[in-house]
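Example 3.2
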Amino acid sequence: MQEPDIQPSLQWTPSGSLKAAIPCALGVGISFYSLSRKSYHPRFTLLFISLPIIVAFQSSNEFSADDFVNEIFARFLLIFLAHQSFLHCILAPEEVDIERRRLSDLSSKYQTVQKQDVSRLHSRQGAPRNWIFAYKMLFNARCLGTKWQVRHANPSGEATMKSNPSPRVKFIMKRLGVLLLRYIFLCLYHDPSFHLYMPDGIPWKQEDFSSGNQQLFWRFLFSFPALEAQARHFVTRGAFIRIYIVCDQLIPDYLILSSYHDILSIIAVGLHIDTPEEWPPLFGQIGKAYSVRKYWSHFWHLLVYRSFSAHAEYMIVKVTGTRKRTTLTRYANNACVFVLSGLMHALVERTLNPDSCSRCGCWATFWRYCLQVVAIISEEVFQRVIAKLEHRLIPGEVRSMFIATMHRITGYIWVIFWTLWSKEFTFFPQAYCLKQQIAA
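Structure, written as C-alpha cells:
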C-alpha cells in the first residue's frame, strides 16, 4: 500500500514524461544493439546502458500522472538494469554467444518463414548480428528458453522453445478472457460502493498505527476468546486493517502486472513474433504457497530472481573464494536476493516520495524483505524437526493420507499469519509517522 505524499505530487506534463521516456528508450536501444552480437567489452557496454537508465530512473516520478504507473516504471528500470548486468558482466561473453547460436538454431525449426538472412546483418568486421536473440533476451528477466531459465517459471515444466507451437488463436482468446476478468475485478476492487467497511469505518485513523497498536498479534490475537467486548472490537478492527493493507499491496500488483504481461503476450503472439510457449503466466498458482519459500518461488513473479541470485552468488564467491554449494551458501544467497529486492523497493520509494522519506524514512519494505529470510530458515528447521517426529511416531500409511493435508492447511495459516505480522512489524511505525505529518 502506498501512503499519500506529504507534499502534492509533481504536476504531470508531456515534457516531464519525455525526460524519463527518452533516456529509457536510449538505454534499451543500446542493450538491443549490444545483445545482437558477441560483446568484447561488456563492462564498458554496461556503462553506456546504465547512464541513460539512471537518468530515466531519476525522472520516473514525472513519467505519468499515475503514481502506481510511475512505481512500476521505476521498478522496471532497476530490474532491466540488473538483467543487463547479468548478461554483460556476470556471464562470460563466450557463454552468451553459445546460447545465442543455440536459440537461433532452435527458433528456425518452427519459423514458417526463414528469417535468418533478414535478422542477421553484418557489421563492418563481417561478424553476424542476431537480432532475434537480442529481442528474445532484451526483457527476458526470467531467461525463458535458455539454460539460465528460472525454475518454476514455466508451470508446464516443459522447454519454452518447442518445435510444435500451441495454436495461437486459442492462446490469444484465453488471454483475452483472463484479461477481461482481471479488468472487471480491478473495477470492483476500486469501486467504493463494493468496499467492505471496517468497524468504525475507513479510511483508518492515526490511532490505528500508534505504538500501542503495532503489535496486535502478540498482544491480543491468541487470547481473543477471553477478551471483553470492547477489546474484541479493537482486535477485530486491527485485524481488518492488517488484512486490508496486505490486500491493498498484493492484489493491485498481481492484477495489474499480470494484465500488462497478458497485453504484451497477446501482441507478441498475435504478430507471430513469439510462440505461446514463450509467454507462460507471470505469477504461479496461489495453491502452492503453503510455505514462505514456496510463496516466493512458486507463486510470486520471479523477474528479479535470476539476476539478483547471480549477483549474490558472485559476491559470495568473492568473499568465500569457493563455488562449493552448501546449506550456508544457499541461505546466504537467499539473504542477498531479499536484501537486494528490499534495496530496490526502498530506492524506488525514495525516488518517488523524497519528502515523506526524508521525514519518516522509506525502509519499511526493505526490512519486510529482509525478514523473509528469517521466516524461510525458521520454517525449514521446523519442518525437519516435525518430519523426524512423524517418521518415529506415525505409521507410513497414515502419514501419506492425512499428514500431507495437515501440512498444507498449517502451511497456509502460517503464510497468512507471517504476511500480516511482517507487514504490521515493518509498515506500521512508518505509517504512524506519515499520519502525524499529514495531521500537522
